[in-house]
Amino acid sequence: MSAYQSACGAEVYFIGCQGGFETQLVPASGFDLVIIPGTPYARQSVLGKIRSLLTLVQGTLAARRLLKRKQTNLVIGVGGYASLGSILAARILGIPCVIHEANVFPGLANRLIGSLSARVFVGWSQASAFFSSSKTVVTGNPVRPVIAARARDLPDQEAPPGYRRILVTGGSLGSPFLNQKGPELLARVRERGVPIAVRHQSGEGEAERLKVEYQRLGIPARVSPFIDDMAEAYREADFAIATAGALTLAELATFGLPALLIPLQAAAADHQMANAKAYAEHAGTSWVEEHNWDPEELAKLVATTLADSDALSAQARRLREMARPDAARTLVEECEAYLTSR
């Protein structure tokens, strides 16, 4: 068993569901991942909802057996249907549990199990309104250690010789909307006299088409389904066009990377729009919903921003001021303090 040992000697393992992105990321990061039954509930047909409830029962029973076998001391839920079954199992066994909500508008699972959790950690102060104030702590959203380490003491962004470097990212799964609309927007930016080079994270199935599209438009671009070294991608960029997933925003802020945010319209309960709005209010970044997309106006906005080095630097400073690169450490310390107090 390749269990990760924390600084305090705790064995950490993950619980997930088949088909989730965790099946790729968790083992690749050296952690143990245990799969339990679970399927989505939100945005499902009646039959799909019934199936989801049945698999929730199965998942809860599987999690109960797992928690007992591993003599688990604490369960940390981060939302999603795997988290729901695990928290219910912990409550049945009397194991303390806490949750972390990364978004401004909490997901269904965390809204349901918030009352069952001893502590509720939130990435945004606005999310506190959905939980009991007596047990809610604003920690920020954790970023990977490599992200925090590579961004530490990062100087203000400076214009590279001759061109601006643009990162287009739709998160780990990619954004079909940005894949479709991004190249045209960037071509219009270049037509406004701003030379650009692009790094585009497309998600599966779109990389080859996008390579051809950028080549047709005469824009130098590196396109890949997934970027393994996101720290380097952030570090070498001057500007990002990105969706508004909570962890993407935390990473952008940590690196002080100015951005145009395009919330993923397909996100559950439109939670990315709430993220983008809150982020923009704090950082002064721009955002637009997919259905309000106007390539000419956005090209003007992006080109004007890219041409103003002082404005880019000022926005980068504001972002780094709002970043919480030590959120993971804060979460661990809060969990340890809670266990010690019991």
Figure out the total of helices. Answer: 13
Order of helices and strands: EEHEHEHEHEEHEHEHEHEHEHEHHH
Order of strands across the main sheet: 10-9-8-11-12-13
Our estimate of the beta-strand percent is 15-25%
How would you describe the overall organization of this protein?
The protein is 46% helix and 15% strand. Helix 5 (145-151) runs parallel beside helix 8 and helix 6 packs across helix 11. It contains 13 helices and 13 strands. It folds into two domains: 4-141 and 326-341, Glycogen Phosphorylase B (Rossmann fold, 3-Layer(aba) Sandwich); 148-322, Rossmann fold (3-Layer(aba) Sandwich). The chain has helices at residues 22-28, 46-69, 81-93, 108-113, 145-151, 176-191, 207-217, 230-236, 246-255, 271-283, 295-307, 309-322, 327-341; strands at 4-5, 11-16, 32-35, 75-77, 97-101, 119-122, 136-138, 164-169, 196-201, 221-224, 239-242, 259-261, 286-287. The model is unreliable at 1-7 (pLDDT under 50). The chain has 342 residues and is an alpha/beta fold. A six-stranded parallel beta sheet has the order 10-9-8-11-12-13, sandwiched between helices. Helix 9 links the parallel strand 11 and strand 12 (259-261).
